[in-house]
Specification:
- With about 400 residues, this protein is an alpha+beta fold.
- The protein is built from twelve helices and seven strands.
- The strands form two sheets. A five-stranded mixed β-sheet has the order 2-3-1-5-6, with helices on both faces. Strands 4-7 form a two-stranded antiparallel ribbon.
- A hairpin with a 2-residue loop joins strand 2 and strand 3.
- The longest helix is centred in the middle third of the chain and has 37 residues, at about 185-225.
Length: about 400
């Protein structure tokens, strides 16, 4: 077996392995829209490698030659589409289909050129280089600069260059053979297939790493996000606020909010409507809070807004805005004239105070707001005076007429 044939056999095994790996990633995470493109790319790669073995056996190989080109072009196209799916909102279908149509037609007619010429090799390699360069550009234009993103960008740029260099490499290495039957016996074929194997493995491994990282990020986000309100749960809230507490000189404030007598909404209108109230209030918090604020649902109908860089005045102004906005907000499912209210407790962090201490004082202020009639904002004062009673006042009515 010629050296190039041996490398082709290895490539066939690698392509099958990566096709299966990306298929399993796609099956295990149905929300992943990238893995199917890469699985398809390696399936195309399998057909391309098979065509390389079959091509020397054909008496009239023009059709097999063009089919082999189309299979490899499909593989590179699927890779570019997978990258586009990962790094940009819209897939460049028009450009991709135009490149495919022009390239396949050019190689069909280019087959009539002498086999071992720069022109024919360039017609064959240029479309691959164009698609790999497009993948590199998509990553560059996304402005994502994590190490793995930079690695992929560099890999695709290198791949584009190696495709463009192959016509010159064929000249330097003694040519690509005077026919398709003698191609696999050339030094150029060994060089081309070996370099292809290296890039195939590198691309597959980096993309698998990227997809696995995305899966881990998604799993972490799900574990730290409240599924109903789409804000952080208690765990996520505490994880996100911890770094801000490392800077004692920076002013920090906390706003606690509690929906007034939320139980009456569930009792009078049902739990589905109660869920809509939770969703509407959480959306109001997200939309009204500053960009650096951290919004969380602490449990039930209690929410928190952590405000790094904000003092008590800023936090109180936000709380008053939220209170007034929610009192006039129309919630889907509630009667038109029925509105909901919320109470707020606000506290500014003291020097060296922990999150639990800050929350305790904001919680005491929130209790005071509940006790004094609800639908109001109360700021924490002297820490020693903010003793939290064991049992907050139980509300009896949340909804009121506008």
């Amino acid at each position: 077996m010629a050296g190039a044939s041996f490398i082709l056999a290895i490539n066939l095994f690698i392509a099958a392995l990566f096709a299966l790996a990306f298929f399993l990633v796609g099956v295990s995470n149905r929300a992943d829209k990238v893995a199917p493109f890469f699985s398809l790319a390696y399936v195309f790669g399998i057909f391309y490698i098979a065509s390389e073995f079959i091509l020397p056996l054909q008496d009239h190989p023009q059709l097999a030659y063009t089919a082999g080109f189309a299979f490899f072009h499909g593989a590179v196209t699927a890779v570019t589409l997978g990258v586009a799916r990962r790094y940009r909102p819209k897939l460049p279908w028009t450009g991709i289909l135009a490149i495919a149509a022009i390239s396949i037609a050019a190689n069909w007619f280019g087959y009539t050129l002498p086999h071992d010429t720069v022109e024919r090799n360039l017609i064959y390699q240029a479309p691959y280089a164009t698609l790999q360069a497009a993948a590199a550009w998509i990553i560059f234009a996304s402005r994502r600069r994590q190490p793995i993103d930079i690695g992929l960008l560099a890999l695709f740029a290198l791949s584009a260059l190696q495709f463009l260099s192959k016509p010159l490499a064929a000249l330097v290495l003694g040519g690509s053979g005077d026919s398709t039957a003698t191609y696999l016996a050339t030094t150029y074929a060994l060089y081309s297939q070996s370099l292809g194997a290296i890039l195939q493995v590198a691309t597959g491994l980096l993309m698998l790493m990227l997809l696995v990282r995305d899966m881990l990020v998604e799993i972490t986000a799900r574990s730290e996000t409240d599924p109903l309100s789409s804000v952080y749960n208690r765990r996520g809230f505490e994880e996100r606020t911890a770094p801000s507490l490392q800077h004692p000189a920076t002013p920090t404030a906390l706003v606690l909010a509690d929906l007034d007598a939320f139980k009456s909404i569930n009792d009078n209108y049902g739990h589905e409507i109660g869920d809509q109230v939770i969703i509407a209030f959480a959306a109001l918090l997200r939309d009204s809070a500053p960009p650096k604020a951290i919004v969380g649902r602490m449990g039930g109908e209690e929410f928190a807004v952590f405000l790094p860089g904000a003092n008590l005045t800023v936090a109180r102004l936000l709380a008053e805005t939220l209170r007034a906005s929610f009192a006039t907000l129309s919630v889907p499912g509630l009667p038109p004239l029925v509105r909901c209210t919320a109470s707020f407790g606000v506290a500014e962090r003291l020097d060296g105070e922990s999150l639990s201490g800050l929350r305790r004082r904001a919680d005491a202020a929130l209790y005071t707001a509940k006790r004094d009639g609800r639908d109001r904002v109360v700021c924490a004062s002297d820490p020693l005076a903010d003793a939290m009673p064991a049992h907050p006042v139980a509300g009896t009515s949340l909804a009121r007429s506008a």
